[in-house]
Amino acid sequence: MITTPVKLWRRGKKLVNHIGKTGKLLYWTIVRVPPKNFADQAPYPVGIVRLDDGEMMVGQLVDWTERDLKSGVKVVAVMRRVTHEDPENIIPYGIKFKPV
Amino acid sequence: MRNESIFIIGASTTRFGELWNSSPRELAKEAFTNALSQSGVGVSNIEALYVGNMLGGMLGHQENIGSFYAEELSLSPVPAFRLEAACASGGVALHNAINSIKAGLYKTVAILGIEKMTDAGGDLVASALMAAGSDEERGSGITFPGLYALMAQAYMQQYKIKEEDLAEVSVKNHYHGSFNHKAQFRFQVSIADVMKSSRIADPLKLLDCSPVTDGAACLVITRDESIIPKNSVSIIASEVGTDTLALHKRSSFTSLRSAKEAAKQAYAKAGVKATDVDVAEVHDCFSIAELIALEDLEFSEVGRAAVDVKKGKFTRGKGKTIVNPSGGLKACGHPVGATGIKQAVEIYEQLMGTAGDKQSVKNAKIGLAHNVGGSGAIATVHIFKKSKMQSAKIKTKFKVQNLQYF
Q1: What is the dihedral of CA B270, B275, B276, B281, to 10 degrees?
Q2: Does B248 touch chain A (CB under 8 A)?
Q3: ipTM
Q4: What percent of chain B stands above pLDDT 70?
Q5: Which of A28, A88, B88, B162 is the most buried (most CB within 10 A)?
Q6: Which of 3.40.47.10, 3.40.50.720, 3.10.20.880, 3.40.50.300 is the CATH number of B6-120+212-388?
Q7: Which residues of chain B are within 8 Å of residue A1 when distances are taken between CB atoms?
Q8: CATH fold of A5-99, please?
Q9: How far is B120 from chain A (nearest CA, A)?
Q10: Per-residue model confidence as pLDDT tens digits over B297-312
Q11: Which whole-number Å values give the CA distances from B381 to B103, B157, B239, B291, B373, in the listed order?
């Protein structure tokens, strides 16, 4: 993922609106061969989530256990670090989903 | 009214694989030289060059790709264009080349599909490919195998199929690839091989996935009747459909609206039905992608593709419509920008009866190529027809050249 301070700042303003929203996990996979900058997190689950307000999102699951990996599991949107700092020492944050 | 039929008069690919000894320039030159030599026309007849390429900038730090290859192929100063539509770059380049001829701008053009992927490391390639996805997808850490894995899970839940059913696609395509001496993988695999291969993005395993590949493919197409051989292949439909960039924004995860729409339009324009198609190259970047393609192209009823593949409905020697006689992206390889052109080259050879060991159909009349970009954000469908020119002024005897490999 390529980030710049301006891009992160612009995106961050929208991301905060999602914090605390709840929804359901529809489909999930476990990424075992990750892209650059995600290597230290792999393997990690990523899922498609339908929020209670109908919005569809894609995001990593956090604080999960094996039994959470099934369709229909309730999740809540949380703000978490996405990758390590970029070359300009800005930490990218994004929305991830925590099973409730 | 102008005759709008467009014919393929030259078609060639390089060998596909990890071609560490070859530069992109060399691959392009090999594909172009062989296609041109087959066409019987000279460099001076080529009025424009269309290049399908996705990663030249990100992996090779080379942009301005149109001019780059026009120079290399000694085509300068003709107009040259690079078309980028992720893994559908080749199909989109062909579509634009066809449009330019239909618009009356040119009579004869070359289309080059090219990608050099194995010079870079796997994590860099995975990141570069994700440029075809959305910002949210990149932020989630998902990969292309991951996106297709999500589709696989949706499909498996909806139609009650198992991982072994997905594996049948890889078994078929490796079987076909075993006949293709230009394929990256010429070995067969069993269901057990697929099932025990390492997991990439559950439920997809290594042998559900197409590889990272180097390769080039080239077509010479024309509407100039004076240079069309008596037996040739015409392109009777060229359609493109699009959809949301991000998978999660779509209404269906088990069908690609882009491909369905392109197929619907292409069948209508060509005046043919799915059942008329004798041979097809479809975009099997992952095993699940072929099942979805078979349904989007109406070769199978919705939810029935896995059963049809298992029955051999699309396998050479068994089926009526042979799908991926080259081995598909899975076994032949997937140099992303080259794939759409390689598919057209394969269909041309199958219709002409010049496919050699990989010849999978006899006296076939209608062929189809289905090329997808991203997780389905764009798709192209081309339909081809074996044609006999009644009043052709045959300039050169048509023959396939013996190709030289690196």
Answers
A1: 80
A2: yes
A3: 0.96
A4: 95
A5: B88
A6: 3.40.47.10
A7: 127, 130, 138-139, 141
A8: OB fold (Dihydrolipoamide Acetyltransferase, E2P) (2.40.50)
A9: 12
A10: 999 999 999 999 999 9
A11: 20, 28, 5, 16, 12
